[in-house]
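Hey everyone, long-time lurker, first post.

I ran two proteins through the pipeline my lab uses and got sequence/structure pairs for each. Pasting them in order. The first:
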Amino acid sequence: MVPVLAVAFSGAIALSTSIGSPALAATSSTPGWLGSVGSLGSSADDSYAAVAQRISAVMAEQGIPGAQVVYSDRHSESAFDYGLSSVATGSPVTSDTVFEAASLTKVVASYVVLQLVDEGVLDLDRPLSDYFDYSRIAADPAAKRITGRMVLTHTSGLPNWATGPSSPEFETTPVSTIFEPGTQWSYSGEGFYYLQKTVEALTGTPFEQLVRERVFDRFGMEGSDLVTNPAFDTVTSVGHTADGTPKPVRNFPRANVAYTLRTTAADYNRFMRGALIGGEGLTPGTRDMMFTPAGSADHGGSDKEAIDHIEWGLGIGLQNNELGDAIWHWGDNGPYKAFFIAYPETGRSLVIMTNSENGLNAVDDVVREFFGPSTMYATRWIKEAE
């Protein structure tokens, strides 16, 4: 059922739903409507609220307990906070609610690595083994040919994970390549962790500190952590299974640049707008290199049309469709799903955080709400990548 609308005089929009349906609150720095082309207009607040209602309906239809959505362009920003942080407690999602960003962490890590490239600390085409003796790959000569560029473009040859990355045995479990490094595309969290360990050895600094200093502090990301911060306990969302069952909240005592970022959609939007679209902290050439296709992201799926429209840059997905060239990434930590997409040439962007295994099912409809009709090759590609 579509929520019943109540508009507060403060300019924020609160939606009260029928029994069993979560509420959605929406705020906008420039109240107005978001039409089929995603541009803010000057219509009354009730038109803006109608967009919030439609987002609420999409989330409810997909069985997603809670979500944050932030849309931005060069002139305005609109934020929507939907539903419940936990169905067990009934706590609402607010703009301060923290979600697991999952693999959106990799984009933050890639940005830090590229800063180090600009500073001459790391050469993307030099084998990481020249910098760091990684005991987990000691038995595999091929792994010693892996470069930073191969890691960022997912051509390292390492598997996604050799064992559970949160397990006690992770640090001592050997990992080997599954193909010759640099010869094909295969998504790899292990590659990013190898790069993390290399950077930590080169700089003498934990990656968590590098991210805090170079990303969180720079962009004012006060609701984000890479190692679990107990100060966020009261605002941390609970992940839910596909049937809505809440899962225990996980702690990340060890940073892993492949997946342990916890953040808000507003914080991630600050990073995306400043670092990716704005290029802050990178030389113009390095920022452009980040968005330059390094090759096909052919994961072997059957949807060849989607594969033909997806390539990989340095730590980030690239999509070409009717709207032009986009940068994007998805995150999947089981009961948390996340997604962002941005068009650097036009400055339009969208961040979605959810606390549900069903989260990615809402992406196409939410993207369409702000960008209008277009072919979402990225989500088609994701379906066969997992």
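...and the second, right after it:
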Amino acid sequence: MTFWTYILRCADGKYYTGHTKNLEARIAQHQTGDVPGWTSMRRPVELMWSEAFETREEAIAAEVQVGNWSRAKKEALFRGDWERVSAAARKPISRYAVSTSSTATRNERDGEMSGDDTPPPVIVLVRPQLGENIGKAARAMLNFGLTEMRLVSPRDGWPNPAAGPAASGADRVLADAQVFDSVADAVADCAHVYATTVRKRGITKPVVTPEEAAREFRTAEGRSAILFGPERSGLETDDVALARAILTVPINPEFGSLNLAQAVILVAYEWSKHQALVSPPSVDQPKAPAPQDELEGLIGQLDAMLETTGYYFPPHRVHVTKRTLRTLLTRPGWSSQEVRTMRGVLSALDGKKRPRE
């Protein structure tokens, strides 16, 4: 089988580096926006360079290498200007200095090649039972920028037709998922392995929360992997024994039950906090508060209207009632427009505003 490393130029002039086992199909997906995230928002894209390799590991290593090159060095590569490539050479980059998940690295997004990105963690599902749960886990991963899934002996085999609909569009994660016969094989290239469990297993290992683990992912050298066990029973003791640390969440001791996708999303969310993902749009800033004299006019108008209705009763409570109303009306920080609107409402209620013909 042939694996490819490639570079795309996006509509905004920035470059995206990735790897794939089917170059033609992957480029078509980028061009139609079927690859969620970076390139789907910057179409059209153009293939600038590609190279074939015999193994996925070689393609990943090439992605890491060229993905961290400067813009000038990439463009020299496109032209075949090897003298310029050599002149722009930097200190060699370690194999896993950036993401191996075919996504634009943070320094690419910023237009600068710093070479210091941390690879995202690998999600390893150990003996997953239902295809639907694998799909939901893929959806949870992609929501928060994780794309590399590894499966250890899935019960119903792989691929599983039930996974696709449950993934709700996270097909990229499923398409690139790798299958292994054992946990040891699945994490062989990972220096930091975390086992997710809420039960004590009689094994003495460091215990961390998802937040603490996410900090370690970003600072550790080498790849990190998180193990998630089968839906019914969780990880076995022998699985946990392969890990360097136990990852757990504070949870209700009377009901410590998370489904697979929930567990994945807790970890993925903590990782995403320091990634350049799309944030919810900010709300409009509130208008400047109305001047005090406008607010006093509103309060005075309401007070006059209430006086004529007999609202202030009994007499000894009048002061307290007026103070409560003033507190209510001053609490929101009314804008001038809001004050005018409310006074218009009061005028209408008082009969001073005539219905429009």
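Reply from user beta_strand_b:
Welcome! Quick read of the second one: The radius of gyration is 30 Å. The beta strands are 3-9, 15-20, 46-53, 122-126, 149-152, 178-180, 190-196, 207-208, 223-228, 245-247.
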